[in-house]
Design a protein that fits this description.
single chain; 404 residues; alpha/beta; Rossmann fold; 6-stranded mixed sheet; 19% strand
């Protein structure tokens, strides 16, 4: 006799939104190589099989349900047959693809059918959501944070009035102070109709001058960022995404570029940053500063700054003939002198350097102290867990006196 087992739920009954999936799998999508520091093929796209394993792990670790659903569904999940379990995981994986959070790319796969024999790439839609999620989490931990543009000491004519009115000058925004303008005309002509206005009667409101800022986020991706039992690069990625979302939504006049430095340095788009793994081994801070200056020279902004996130002292240098000079022991005089030359060049160009240290070894602290003394920037000793809070607070609460 054939037995049929009836349960309260079927795999189709479990409704898990793609946003909940992204939230639970954020570390997987932004992985930096911490799970396999010696991966011979870093930075590759994920396979469908890897995505399935990540979803299965999230289900097993109960990261996809709130407390109410968890109590209802835990026992039911345990009673699923292997076929039903595979069906559920496949549906959730395909859901991310169908809703545009992952994009299939041609490549080798682990499955027989052609649809799954491909690699997957994180899309801009996913990057935007992960940036929003990280920003929301960070601002939640900061408590009440006021948004707005960057305040400076100067006043300018604008829409939002916050100062006394002034005589209109050519080029000012025509944000007319009607009462002061009329009072000036009445005082000159007397109370009569029609009232004739003269050019000298025009007064406009003053508003606080809002400056724009060009930022280069300089990320250390040398191998030490995932060694020593701690993943430091993935939190740095999350902060980059959060900062990009903050700038796009709250400071639309600002710009953000991202530069990675290791044995050399290169600029990466935020979408590319999501799947970047750490490596090579050394820390060529000088090349990172040179590229950051080149990018900032193209920007016509009132303020220019470099935000550097690192866990180690400079240990590499590109020589004039293109050869790489490396020395990981102590503070090498040649590496230090050439690196500090670039810091001094930043200062001469009015570029501020704020440094966020993810380690506290003697040589790193000594190097960062010299950087802050040269460029009058700030230095923060942080951990991967507090990096975002420090960085966002610094960005939002920057005072004009540290810029001018």
């Amino acid at each position: 006799m054939r037995w049929v087992r009836y349960t309260k739920y079927t795999p189709e009954d479990i409704q898990i939104s793609s946003e909940d999936l992204l939230r639970a799998l954020s570390d997987f999508f932004l992985r930096s190589g911490f799970d396999n520091p010696y991966d011979p093929n870093p930075g590759r796209r994920m396979s469908f099989a890897e995505l399935r394993r990540a979803i299965e792990q999230a289900l097993n670790e109960e990261r996809l349900f709130d407390e109410e659903k968890l109590e209802q569904l835990r026992q039911w999940l345990e009673r699923l047959s292997q076929e039903q379990w595979d069906e559920l995981i496949d549906r959730l994986a395909n859901q991310l693809i169908e809703e545009g959070y992952l994009e299939p790319r041609p490549g080798p796969g682990s499955f027989g059918d052609a649809e799954r024999a491909q690699s997957l790439e994180v899309t801009d839609k996913s990057i935007d959501f992960l940036g929003y999620k990280t920003l929301k989490d960070l601002l939640g931990s900061l408590g009440k944070a006021s948004f707005g543009a960057h305040d400076t000491r100067d006043l300018a004519t604008g829409i939002e009035a916050s100062g006394a009115s002034k005589l209109y000058e050519f080029g000012d925004t025509m944000n007319l102070d009607v009462s002061t303008t009329l009072f000036s005309a009445i005082r000159r002509e007397g109370l009569k109709l029609p009232l004739e206005l003269d050019y000298a009667d025009l007064h406009v409101h003053q508003a606080e001058y809002r400056s724009s800022c060009a930022t280069v986020l300089l990320l250390d991706c040398s191998h030490s960022m995932i060694l020593y039992g701690e993943d430091r690069f993935t939190p740095a990625k999350k902060v980059a995404l959060a900062l990009a979302h903050l700038i796009r939504t709250q400071y639309p006049g600002d710009t953000l570029r991202t530069v990675l430095f290791h044995d050399s340095a290169e600029e990466v788009r935020l979408a590319e940053l999501a799947q970047v793994h750490v490596g090579p081994w050394y820390t060529n801070t000088r090349d990172g500063l040179i590229l950051a200056q080149r990018l900032l020279q193209r920007e016509r902004k009132d303020m220019k700054q470099i935000i550097m996130i690192t866990d180690g002292k400079p240990s590499a240098l590109t020589l004039e003939d293109g050869r790489m000079y490396r020395n990981a022991f102590g503070l090498d005089p040649l590496v230090m002198s050439r690196t500090l030359e670039e810091v001094a060049r930043c200062k001469r160009q009015g570029i501020l350097i704020n440094t966020f240290m993810l380690a506290s070894d003697y040589h790193l602290v000594q190097f960062v102290q010299q950087v802050t003394e040269l460029c009058r920037g700030k230095a923060y000793f942080t951990t991967p867990y507090t990096l975002g809070e420090y960085l966002l607070l610094d960005y939002m609460n920057r005072k004009s006196r540290t810029i001018h």
